[in-house]
Design goal:
Elements: E1 2-5, E2 16-19, E3 29-39, H1 41-48, E4 64-71, E5 82-85, E6 95-99, E7 103-105, H2 112-117, H3 119-132, E8 140-143, H4 149-160, E9 165-170, H5 176-182, E10 186-189, H6 193-200, E11 206-211, H7 216-222, E12 225-233, E13 255-258, H8 261-267, H9 272-284, E14 292-297, H10 301-310, E15 316-320
The protein binds NADP nicotinamide-adenine-dinucleotide phosphate.
């Protein structure tokens, strides 16, 4: 089968489109024929070696949409079923294997393109909003990096939940129209957002802030987080760790909560099924959708990575397999 493989860490040039063996499935696993897979920022970090994990040859990719090619007897999946999944051992490949606990049926009404765009970003965003951040309708919230894959989803799900004030940040105001079309009420850049958030909330600050950038964005977020507010920290696309002092949180009754979908896939996979069913329903009914920045052929994975690294994309970048 065809796959995109890397044998060293580095820039997008290390991604090689090549032939490898179809994976063997083990107990409790299914084999999926990939229709589309998506590019997530985590893939960029893994490719560069920032995660300091991954044995070579390494296949990147977190999520797929496709059809069941092979299942074990007694499986709850049958050949031909349409599914999304979080595969084991990467998704930039014609066939992937996945633990059945991380495979979810999708209806005919959901296109493979939308289905491939949503697994990581929609399941993550739903958990971040409702279970970690526990947003309320009366809240003012801040969503950093709002034009990206996760950001596009957080903005839509927040508005769907009725959150009164959704404040978005972007690296470049050329993305303002895109983020407002998704439902954001206000859009600022990273340079000015603490003052902007304070002035828009009458000096009170935001009730919940979703931070996937880290570095100085984390400390700046604490400068505009309301009393009793929650900073949800779930990424470091800026490449630097963020920091805060204990005195930033105790007297103000604020808290900082972290979350990782990767950790949850590994240690609490059962958490994901009800959330997956909920978000699949929202996509199938058209209540939310993900704008697709660009679809690349699998062989052009390096071009897809360069687009994401350019920070010019809005929405999801897909690979057609
Ligand atoms: N915790 C988890 O389980 C989990 C799961 C999935 C994703 N994430 C995190 O969520 C974030 C978004 O992921 P995504 O896949 O949806 O990616 P994305 O948002 O589509 O792309 C990354 C975005 O990060 C922003 N960014 C800010 N500083 C940057 C920098 N120094 N270099 C590059 N980009 C920078 C850019 O938007 P602007 O140009 O507008 O700033 C860029 O478009 C990432 O931090 C990712 O690691 C976490």
């Amino acid at each position: 089968m065809k796959a995109v493989v890397q044998n060293e860490f580095g820039s997008a040039e290390v991604l090689r489109y090549t032939d490898i063996d179809v994976p063997e499935i083990g107990e409790g696993e299914v084999l999926i024929k990939t229709a589309f897979t998506s590019v997530n920022f985590a893939d960029i970090k893994s490719r560069r070696g920032a995660k300091k994990s991954g044995a070579f040859p390494l296949i990147l990719g977190l999520d797929v949409a496709g059809t069941i090619e092979k299942a074990q007897s007694g499986s709850s999946f049958s050949v031909g079923d349409r599914v999304i999944a979080f595969p084991a051992g990467g998704s930039y490949a014609e066939f992937v294997r996945a633990d059945e606990k991380l495979v979810f049926h999708i209806p005919e009404s959901l296109s493979f393109e939308q289905a491939a765009a949503m697994p990581t970003v929609s399941i993550l965003s739903y958990i971040l909003l409702h279970e970690i951040g526990q947003v309320k309708k009366s809240d003012a919230i801040v969503i950093h990096s709002a034009a990206g894959g996760v950001g596009s989803m957080l903005v839509q799900l927040a508005k769907l939940a009725g959150v009164e004030t959704v404040i978005a940040t972007v690296g470049n105001l050329q993305k303002e129209t895109y983020v407002k079309d998704l439902g954001a009420d206000l859009v600022y850049t990273y340079d000015t957002f603490p003052e902007d958030v304070l002035s828009q909330t009458g000096g009170l600050g935001a009730n919940v802030i979703f931070d996937s950038v880290a570095g100085d964005i984390t400390s700046k977020s604490l400068d505009c987080l309301a009393l009793y507010g929650t900073l949800v920290q779930f990424g470091n696309s800026g490449g630097m760790a963020g920091s805060f002092k204990t005195s930033d949180i105790h007297a103000s009754c604020r808290n900082v909560k972290g979350f990782s979908l990767g950790t949850t896939r590994k240690h609490r996979p059962e958490w994901l099924k009800p959330v997956a069913e909920k978000v699949i329903g929202l996509f199938a009914s058209g209540e939310v959708s993900l704008p697709i920045a660009q679809v690349f052929d699998l062989r052009d994975a390096a071009k897809a990575h360069r687009l994401m690294e350019s920070r010019k994309h809005e929405g999801k970048v897909l690979l057609k397999v």
